[in-house]
Amino acid sequence: MDTLKAEKFFKAGEIIMAQGDAGTCAYFIQEGRVGIVVEKDDGKVLDMGTRGPGSIIGEMAIVDNQPRSATIRSLENCRLLEITKDDFARSVRGANPIVRLIAQVILMRYRDILRRSQMLSHEAAGAQSPELQEKEYAEQINVVQAIKMANEFKVAIATGQLRLHYQPIISIASGRVLGFEALMRWQHPERGLIPPDLFIPMAEDSGLIIEASRWAVREVCQLIKRLDKLRPDLDSVYFSVNMSATDFDDQGFLESFNGILDETRTSASRLNLEITERLLLKQPKNVKETLDRCRDLGISVVIDDFGIGYSSLSYLHQYPIDALKIDKSFIHMMRRDAKVLGLVKSILSLRDNLAIRIIAEGVEEAEEAALLASLNCDVAQGYYFSRPVAEEHLYSLLAQRNPLQV
Ligand code: C2E
Ligand code: CA
Ligand code: CA
Description:
TIM Barrel, 2 domains, eight-stranded mixed barrel, four-stranded antiparallel β-sheet, binds ligand C2E, binds calcium ion
C-alpha cells in the first residue's frame, strides 16, 4: 500500500536524490525548498540554486534512463509528490509519438549542454528564472490535482474502490432484458460515489484506464458466473463493457482479455465491447486487427454514441461491427425535430442494409419507446426502463422482467 502512496516527506537536510544514482522517479514539490548541487569531473561542486513549491525535480531520469545528474537535498521539511517512471511511461505510451520524441531529444540535448558546460551558470541576466517559469507552467496545467487524482485512482484500483453499475438493454416489445451495459463508478473514501465523466478522462490521460478496463472485464466475467449459477436459463443475456482508445494502444490488450475469459471460463459470446467512432477514425493500424481478433474470439463490437462523431459511414464495412448505439441526444430530439427523426430513420436503415443491430440509447419517456417501436427499433436502453443499478438490484430486475419459465 505504502508504495502506492504518492506523497513523500523529507526532513530538512535529507538527501532526496544523489548524483550518479539510478533515477526511478521525479518529484513535484508541494511544500518546502530544496537545494541542487552538481559535482563536476574535477571535483568542484557547483551550486545550481534552489527550488520551491510548484517545481519538478529529478525529471530527466524518468525520461531517458540516465543516472541522476545532480544531488538534491531538502533545505526545509519537504512534502513531495512522486511521479514514477511507470507513471510517466504509461502517460506517454499512448501519447503522440512526436511529443515523446521531442521530449527525449530536448532532454538529451539538455544533458549534453550540462555535460559540456563548465560554467553551468543558471542565472541568465534579465531572463525569468527557471524556477518561476516551471512554477507558472505547473499552475497552468493544474499538475498537482492531476497527479494526485491519478495516484488516488491507482490506489482505488488496487484497493477495490471501483464499482460497476449495470443498466439493462431492453426489448421494447417483450419488456425483457437482453443484456446490460457495465458503467464504472469510483467509490471514493472521502468524496463518495464519483461518476465516470469525472475520472475516465484522467484515467485515459494517465494510461491507468488499461488496468481499470481489465478490472471491469474480470468483474463482469465473475458476475456472469454468479448469474449463471442463479439463473442458468439466462445464458443469452450479454454484458457490454466500455473501452477507450487508450485500451487499444496496449499491446497486451487481447492477451489479457483472452486470459480473463479463460481464467473465469466465460464464453466470449456473453461480452460486447463498446467503442466510439473516434477510435476508428484514429485508425491506428492495430485497431482493425484487434477488432478482427475480437470477432474471431466471438466478442461483439458495438459503436457507442453513434451519430454525434464524424459519422463516416465508410468504416462500417471496413471494421467488424455488430451493433450501433444511437446517441441519446438524437432520441431526445427526434420527437421535436423532423430532421433528427430523419437521421434516426436512416441509422435504422443500416440494420437491414448492413445487417447491424441497432440500440437506441437514453430513452427517458414512454412516447420515445413507442415511437422507436413504430419505427421497428426494438432494442433500447434508458432511464425509462431502468437507471444503472448495482449488482444486488440486477437480480431482482431480472426476476421482474425475465421471470423463470415454469
Ligand atoms: P456511455 O457509454 O454513453 O454510457 C451511457 C451514459 O448515459 C451513462 O452515464 C448512463 O448512466 C447514461 N444514461 C443511461 N440512460 C440514460 C437516459 O435515459 N438519459 C440520460 N440523460 N442518460 C442516460 P454514466 O454512467 O455517467 O457514464 C458516462 C460515460 O462514461 C459513458 O457514456 C462512458 O463513455 C464512460 N464510461 C462509463 N463507464 C466506463 C468504463 O468502464 N470504461 C470507459 N472507458 N468509459 C466508461
Ligand atoms: Ca457505452
Ligand atoms: Ca453512449
